Amino acid sequence: MSEKSIVESIKENVRMQNDSWRFVMGRESLTKSEVLKRLDNDKGFRKSLVKLVVELSIDILARKPRG
Amino acid sequence: MWLVVRPVFDDVTEITFDEAQDVIDYFAEKSVPYIDLAREDAVRENVEKVLKENPETNMYHADHGSEDKIWGNDNRPVIDLENVELLRGRAIYNNNCSSAKKLGVEAWKQGCLAFWGYTEVVYFTTDALEEFKEAMNYGLKRRIDGFSWSECLQKTKERMTELIDALVKAGKALAASCLRLDRDSLVCYNAEPPQSGCVFRRLAIRLFGPEVGWKLRESLRRAFYVLLGVF
Fold first, then answer.
1. Which residues in chain B have their CB less than 8 angstroms from residue A27's CB?
2. pLDDT tens by residue, A15-59
3. CATH of B2-194, one of 3.40.50.1460, 2.60.120.10, 3.40.630.30, 3.40.50.300
4. CB within 8 Å of B60: residues ≥ 6 apart
5. In this complex, do B12 and A29 lie within 8 Å of one another by their Cβ atoms?
6. Which of B94, B114, B192, B208 falls 20 to 30 Å from B186 in CA-CA distance?
7. Per the domain annotation, does A67 fall within a domain?
8. pTM for the model
């Protein structure tokens, strides 16, 4: 899966949020439209969000099976 | 006794203020004495006064943090590297960003009993505020229940993993991603000693243990003056 398709999936997820939804990174509290805008225009932000979701996938894959 | 410090001056601190209220409710339920410095009372002079007058008091801080300071209500830090010695002999539970990176290490070096906090910026999303509140306060509640700091850290990370899984199942993948990041940057010095990014510091810690390794420069300086006195 390319970075582009991961970004598209993140955007899809953000679009599904309600209008009062916020994404908070420390002091920065971003609205839905601000997140979508920064995903388009801010390479650093885009990469950090891709890293965020990829690392969750790795975390889930690395778990030992239960039982 | 616990000192609760909870300023409010923006969207994010309104949320952390509410998270601190959850802790206060738990203190009340468990008959744990506390002092609440809220909103405009959450400033440096008041925090210093309470800590100096109550040497047994631990501290809970819910607000913004930086690598070397934690903030008050008036855009000034309540604890930074200038007054970090006030944490000697007590525990501090941080619900803030990044303060474990430098302030926590310095507090640990100065004899802070337990520094609970995050080495990185804390991320969250508002579609899972209840889950983040539970995760942020879980360790302190377990401490009040009588567990050691080491057990509290382990139990909190396990609970965070359960919450991550529940968020994924609920279709809140971004919230789960944020909580995974927070879980991995959560530390508690002394449940574990601080980690260093410096190769020489890591070597010193490995050779001499964390107590000496983290204070090697200071130890060498003291040894130099001792030798100077001898000769």
1. 10, 12, 64, 97
2. 999 999 999 999 999 999 999 999 999 999 999 999 999 999 999
3. 3.40.50.1460
4. B2, B3, B4, B5, B20, B23, B92, B93, B95, B140
5. yes
6. B208
7. no
8. 0.87
